[in-house]
Task: structure prediction
Amino acid sequence: MLASEGGGWRLDLEAASALNTQVVKAKLQAIETLGLDDAIQDVLITLGKQLHLIRPLEANPAMFLYVALDKKAANLGMARL
Result:
């Protein structure tokens, strides 16, 4: 399911979710390859004007929440809740 709210810029959510799926898969593969007994809590990507937060769901780690925020207006602490 894809949803969007607010923001003055357009983001292709379909493309972003597909591409960020690859980010999550790569991190999961790294965790497995390194033999870490751990799970992803979240992935933060900081761009010049935006923050992108990826958080796998505890109930289904194959699914994740993806939030793109305006860096000037965002409160990262609140977004991570």
User: Anything to note?
Assistant: Residues 13-33 form the longest helix (21 residues). The beta strands are 43-46, 50-56, 64-70.
